[in-house]
Amino acid sequence: MLRGTTILAVLFALYVQNDAATSSRYTAMGNLQTVIHGEELFSTDIDPDRQVTGFLWCQVREGTIHYKPTWARFIRIRDKKEFAADIGQDNKAYLHFGKSKAEASGKYRCEVKVPDNSIITGNMFAYSHPVVKNNESWPLKKSDEPFTVTGSAVYASPETTARIPCPIIGYPEPNVIWFKNDFPLEIEGRVSFDKTSGVLSIEKVEEADAGIYRCEGTNQFPVLIDGPEQEFIVKLKQELKIGDNYGWLLPLAIILITLILLFIIIFTCQRCAKYKADQYNVAERERALHNDQVPLKNSV
Prior knowledge:
Blueprint: E1 7-8, E2 15-16, H1 20-23, E3 27-30, E4 33-35, E5 55-62, E6 65-67, E7 71-76, E8 81-84, E9 86-87, E10 93-96, E11 106-113, E12 119-132, E13 141-142, E14 148-150, E15 154-156, E16 162-165, E17 168-171, E18 175-180, E19 183-184, E20 191-194, E21 199-202, E22 211-222, E23 229-242, H2 249-292
């Protein structure tokens, strides 16, 4: 799996939101792409000692003059989120990713305003290998198999719709394929996959649908300047069980019954002990009273 951060410093052509005469005056520079590396296999699988990830930068010049931007920003294309650029002493506009995660990856647009109010724009890319997006309420475990994680079992009652999650993210957008019991799964008929939600749905499930399901997400991008594209992969395995997930009720019922019986025994023992104590005290009082009423032989 990819480690650290690699920055591809490439000159790229930007265009000017103005007339052609103005456009010919400017030359734009920047690093076309960088690689973000935050997680290993899933989003809560983070190395606290990971290296600080990279940045994107862009710059505008006219002849030998490097303009200091009067204003600059970066926009992430997929969600239109805007990021204010840091203007460096070298007159470059920067977007620093820090220790960002895969969710920050994607296609960006750099926008720089120069002194004559022209807006110079250009597209840039922040790559990330595929990772499974999860949270603390959905724990995942690393498998002994390479690039594989396992999730908890998914339960579905007969004749209902089973939903198996596979939220794999990254940039370029990973291509996801499915397997059942290590055989390719056909996405047709009762079986469908929603790429937006990352959920595999199986309608009207039956016993034959039970098994081990695995989704695999892959993407490709170059790591080195002018280097070939490399492929990256992550796999998520989950078991589908047909039947209600009531297995936890039996041990809970046993625990509750045991506690009730224990309470009854303790309560009964305490009542018996109190009854015996009361009976003993009554007998003592009767003996004492009897002794006080016995007349003396010489009394009148």
